[in-house]
């Protein structure tokens, strides 16, 4: 009996190791002019699928939308997570060739996290099942700096065209309707700093492959709403509607 109690306690503590909050891949559309549309899709090694969209409603103003979804089922833990964001902001091209881009966006979002943790005795008998369910709201402020200047590298005898960028995010999240095994739990809040860096392989003016990596830093000490996940994804980005340069 004591062994079962200890195993159940360990399972409950492990269920708190992973955060309720998972950062989305930031929207980095690298817009140039009114009427341009950007869309991206990204996938992490954990199976977290992210999509981004942005539309330039003016020569310096844009609206953005982000979404992420993860559904992982394993022997001892199931995890379902979803997050949706909308926002808007300002972009500006500058530099000698007008190929540097500064973007500032702000917005709101809503997420849901359902985690089921199971404890077994010698991986045969189910001893305990813990279900953690939470919804949360968030606001964010994001600053992007990127460049459309093309750098080239040779890899395996092939010339690859690359450009780079970074995004700094400040996010505030707060849980609501947080329960553990259908018992109401005290809600938590946290402030996250999310620096993200990306590299794009330029296949054409409209289509690029993107590698994204970043970290997540929680400014408050929280048990459940903490900085438990980072960003590591591979994806693709499409930009259409860009006006050609006037020579």
From TrEMBL:
Residues 38-179 form the Outer membrane protein beta-barrel domain. Keywords: Signal. Residues 1-18 form the signal peptide. Transmembrane segments: none annotated. InterPro entries: Beta-barrel_OMP (IPR027385). This is Outer membrane protein beta-barrel domain-containing protein. It comes from Pedobacter montanisoli.
């Amino acid at each position: 009996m004591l062994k079962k109690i200890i195993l159940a306690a360990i399972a409950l503590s492990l269920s708190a190791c992973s955060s309720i909050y998972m950062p989305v891949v930031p929207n980095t559309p690298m817009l140039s002019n009114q009427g341009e549309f950007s869309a991206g899709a990204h996938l992490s090694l954990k199976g977290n699928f992210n999509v981004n969209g942005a539309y330039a409603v003016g020569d310096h103003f844009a609206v953005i939308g982000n979404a992420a979804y993860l559904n992982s089922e394993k022997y001892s833990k199931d995890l379902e997570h979803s997050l949706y964001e909308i926002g808007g902001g300002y972009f500006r091209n500058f530099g000698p060739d007008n190929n540097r881009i500064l973007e500032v966006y702000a917005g709101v979002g809503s997420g849901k996290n359902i985690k089921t943790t199971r404890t077994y005795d010698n991986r045969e008998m189910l001893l305990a099942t813990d279900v953690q369910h939470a919804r949360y709201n968030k606001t964010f402020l994001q600053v992007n700096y990127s460049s459309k200047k093309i750098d080239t590298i040779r890899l395996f005898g092939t010339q690859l065209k690359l450009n780079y960028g970074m995004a700094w995010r400040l996010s505030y999240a707060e849980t609501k309707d947080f329960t553990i095994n259908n018992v109401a739990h005290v809600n938590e809040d946290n402030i996250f700093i999310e620096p993200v860096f990306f590299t794009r392989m330029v296949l054409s003016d409209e289509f690029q492959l993107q590698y994204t990596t970043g970290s997540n830093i929680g400014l408050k000490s929280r048990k459940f709403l903490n900085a438990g996940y980072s960003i590591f994804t591979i994806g693709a980005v499409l930009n259409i509607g860009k006006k050609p340069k006037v020579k």
